[in-house]
Write a structure and sequence with these properties.
With 317 residues, this protein is of the alpha/beta class. The protein has helices spanning 53-63, 151-156, 174-185, 198-206, 219-224, 235-240, 274-284, 297-302, and strands at residues 8-10, 13-16, 21-23, 31-33, 46-51, 68-73, 80-82, 85-91, 99-105, 108-112, 134-139, 165-168, 190-193, 215-216, 229-233, 248-251, 288-294, 308-311. The two termini are 28 Å apart.
Length: 317
């Protein structure tokens, strides 16, 4: 029997009362099960953190000694228990080390996706479809009008200009994917990387992910070469250099508002779009779908009278 209160939203985050642990808590807690290392899912300061090895490495880089008191790193497909709940990680395809969290309790399987994407990405482990009774899915882009274009077609747009490009991308996950895509599909471009992104690239390489060629940003190189330089910077740097001259601006994201006022739009998202969410529901074969992170109303309408869709969060979550 599906327990409607198996996961509850609290001010601290998603709480599983039956295992007395939190999923991706927003404040330090005693027991934290962390899906991936992005800052809105992985905060420092919890006592016991259960996650993949790559997630622990990223958290230790970001939070240093405040990352956690103890890390318990688990491989994909390696079951472990917290109280009476059996937990197994499966790849989420979002960034390196990202995990879906399968929780089994009294014969019922609850699958928390965390953030995920199902399309191929050479810089992280591929998404795995896992059958479950309840699918707890992110719904960041759960809108029938949202269809992410091919990332290859998007990155190839950069070949249409010889002008130097300032490319905004999140330091963890997106930047490494962009470096790899540029190497594969934009061979004439010289890739330079902002110093704050470099440690994350190195961790990717330490875990055996080959992103290709890149160099640390050198102002002189950019100044002396007016063509074919791509400078990858984190969002804060991108937004603070809004008057940068002699560069075309682009920001790699699925969000429309981040494409405005840029020279080139670059719709490359690390989240599931509408079709991907529908495909995931079809393959997970859940009896119920619970939605998080975003607006689940359109999914609820789509499955009306066919499948129970429960919106765990309000629109303003």
């Amino acid at each position: 029997m599906i327990l409607e209160d198996f996961i509850a939203i609290t001010p601290t985050g998603l709480y599983c009362v039956y295992g007395d642990f939190y999923l991706d808590p927003q404040q330090p807690v005693k027991e934290a099960v962390v899906s991936h290392a992005h800052g809105d899912h992985a905060i420092g300061g919890s006592q016991n953190v259960y996650c993949t090895a790559a997630t622990a490495t990223f958290m230790k880089h970001r939070y240093r000694k405040f990352a956690a008191v103890d890390f318990y790193t688990k491989s994909y497909h390696e079951p472990f228990k917290i109280k009476e709940v059996t937990i197994t990680f499966y790849s989420a395809g979002h960034i390196l080390g990202s995990a879906q969290i399968l929780m089994e309790y009294k014969g019922v399987k609850y699958l928390y996706t965390g953030d995920y994407k199902i399309e191929p990405d050479n810089t992280c482990e591929p998404f795995e479809f896992v059958e479950a009774d309840v699918l707890i899915t992110e719904s960041t882009f759960a809108n029938p009008e949202t269809k992410h274009p091919s990332p290859i077609a998007e990155i190839q747009k950069l070949n249409e200009t010889n002008t130097n490009i300032m490319l905004g991308a999140y330091a963890l996950g997106k930047s490494q994917r962009i470096i790899q895509l540029l190497n594969e599909h934009c061979p004439t471009k010289n890739i330079m990387v902002h110093h704050s992104i470099m440690p994350f690239v190195k961790i990717y390489e330490d875990y055996g992910m080959k992103v290709g060629n890149y160099k640390m940003y050198d102002r002189k190189v950019m100044k002396n070469n007016q063509e074919n330089q791509v400078y990858i910077v984190p969002p804060m740097v991108f937004h603070s250099y809004h008057k940068a001259i002699n560069v075309v601006r682009a920001f790699a994201s699925g969000w429309k508002n981040l494409q405005q006022q840029n020279g080139i739009s670059l719709y490359i998202s690390d989240h599931a779009d509408w079709d991907a969410i529908l495909e995931t529901i079809e393959k997970v074969k859940p009896k119920q779908v619970w939605t998080l992170h975003g607006d689940g109303k359109q999914l609820k309408d789509h499955f009306k009278n066919k499948l129970e869709v429960k919106i765990l969060n309000s629109k303003n979550d």
